Amino acid sequence: MDNKYMITIKKWSDDIDGTYFVAKVPELKGCMSDRDTIKEALVNVREAISGYLEVLIESGETIPRPRNDKEIVQLLGEYTKEEIAECYQAVDKLRSIIDQLNKM
Question: What's the whole-model pTM score?
Fold first, then answer.
């Protein structure tokens, strides 16, 4: 499934878990994932989107229409150059995988 929902990613740090990244889909209430890296958070939130939409379909509920015509990943807060590069690489890889799946 081609994702056109906006994904926001925010870096969090605390004394117990250290640094981790929370990826949310504002248009899908409660759809989110958190992981140790941006790449893992993006992969997991995309899986969360698929699961979220499957539940809506199975329960006969309306699927919210994305406001975008392509996926948007928005970084919230401050990031290092390395973290930003990781985000770009993860998004490019995911788009490549989706393009390959769509051609099947």
Answer: 0.70
